[in-house]
Specification:
- By secondary structure, the protein is mainly β.
- The protein has no helices and 11 strands.
- β4 and β5 form a beta hairpin.
Amino acid sequence: QVQLVESGGGLVQPGGSLRLSCVVSGFTLRWSAMRWYRQAPGKERELVAGISSAGDSTNYADSVKGRFTISRDNAKNTVYLQMNSLKSEDTAVYYCYAASLFTWGQGTQVTVSS
């Protein structure tokens, strides 16, 4: 059974940092490109960042470029999203997505507030 489990969310002040993790089980991570999405209340889910299966290509939403970094450790079956210089508008539920399997994680809440 394929599972994606996110963790690392929480409450952080503006300007702070968080690192999200997505642990994958039930399939071999290196076979799939991976993405992070987010959904804020009352808004549609949006793509935040993506990374190729080999980890040699990444892409980011304009709103997070220069602040967020996606990475992966295929040996640990884990994908990461390092989020720096967080803003209130980054508040959302963040989801991990396995592109080759069309599979979502359950999401982790990130709240940026003073």
